[in-house]
Design goal:
The protein is an alpha/beta fold. It is built from 8 helices and 8 strands, in the order αβαβαβααβββαβαβα. A hairpin with a 5-residue loop joins strand 5 and strand 6.
Length: 186
């Protein structure tokens, strides 16, 4: 199992002009690790990070969009995989951090701990998929995550993170939205 913060720190070292869409626990970790204008935070929208990512990928085909999602969040909108598989944007990577809990809501276990998210993605028509459970395996995938010509789905098996209260106030400031708009306009 991987420490999510370590995985995100590795990813951040290779990020250049990609749009990163993050939600809940991944978002609070990401903002702490790599605060930048091209971050989009999926505000109060559990289950919709992949849908927001799809919209951005279609609107901005010249940029790779990376979605940092959670397993509990994906379960709230599992049908998104079918939509992603059908539309198959060439510039979208959907990473699901699987720890078996609704971490942002106190660590309650998700139903059916045996969910095979990669299998669901493949069954939905997503051709490029992977699952990793070690930091070394994740590091080996980063180049393909960022440079692949096509839709990529990855399941990253992680340890449960801290369950203490997280503040989302900082990431939803209007100045962040304006900075994202400006960065996308450049």
């Amino acid at each position: 199992m991987i420490d999510r913060r370590k995985a995100l720190q590795l990813l951040a070292k290779s990020i250049t002009n990609e749009i990163v869409v993050a939600t809940y626990s991944s978002a609070t970790d990401w903002i702490d690790i790599f605060d930048r204008p091209l971050n989009y935070f999926s505000s109060g929208a559990m289950g919709l990070a992949s849908s927001h990512g799809l919209g951005l990928a279609l609107a901005r085909p010249e940029r790779r969009v990376i979605v940092l999602d959670g397993d509990g969040s994906l379960l709230m909108n599992l049908g998104t995989l079918v939509t992603l598989g059908q539309v198959a944007p060439r510039n979208l990577t959907h990473l699901v951090f699987q720890n078996g809990t609704y971490e942002a809501n106190g660590g309650h276990p998700i139903p059916n701990q045996k969910v095979d998210f990669e299998g669901h993605a493949r069954a939905a028509g997503i051709e490029q998929t992977f699952t990793v459970s070690t930091l070394e395996d994740f590091a080996a995938k980063i180049d393909s995550i960022l440079s692949s010509d096509g839709l990529v789905f990855g399941c990253v098996k992680i340890e449960q993170g801290p369950l203490g209260p997280r503040s989302y106030k900082e990431m939803y400031r209007s100045e962040r939205r304006e900075a994202l708009r400006s960065a996308l306009a450049e």
